[in-house]
Design brief:
Layout lengths: L1 H4 L5 H13 L7 E6 L5 E5 H19 L5 H23 L6 H34 L1
Antiparallel strand pairs: 1-2
């Protein structure tokens, strides 16, 4: 169980992006859903937009996971940092990852790392303050 708890949720979005780009190149730019809004506007959601939306939902889950204070949270932070480094390197060197969509996914992995460490440090500081009161 702790092995799965240590895997960053955002890896799902990264894998979906690569599957889309390898199986169907350019799919992240294709219109996946179109809506006519009551205002008269026509909104189109592309594959990349849906991936970013999924990433934002999973980023919320990652921030919730970072509130844990256990050994598993340390491993989770390390794997999240690894995922960020991999995404950053791929963004820089792999042509298919050099898109706005993948940039936003990479930015989400960075936010996951920074927020995870920030929340964990804050929680640890609170635990220390409570422990000194007793």
């Amino acid at each position: 169980m702790s092995l799965f708890a240590s895997i960053p949720l955002l890896i799902v979005v990264v894998i979906f992006y690569f599957v889309l780009e390898i199986i169907a190149p350019g799919a992240s730019g294709k219109v996946m859903m179109a809506l006519d809004l009551p205002s008269g506007s026509h909104m189109e959601l592309r594959g990349g937009d849906l991936l970013v939306g999924l990433g934002l939902v999973l980023l919320y889950g990652e921030i919730l996971k970072s509130t844990r204070t256990s050994v598993a949270s340390v491993v989770d932070h390390m794997t999240s940092m690894g995922l960020f480094v991999i995404c950053l390197v791929l963004f820089i060197v792999w042509g298919k990852a050099g898109t706005g969509t993948f940039f936003l996914i990479t930015l989400m992995t960075l936010i996951d790392v920074v927020a995870g460490f920030t929340v964990t440090i804050s929680a640890a500081r609170r635990d220390v303050d409570v422990a000194t009161l007793h």
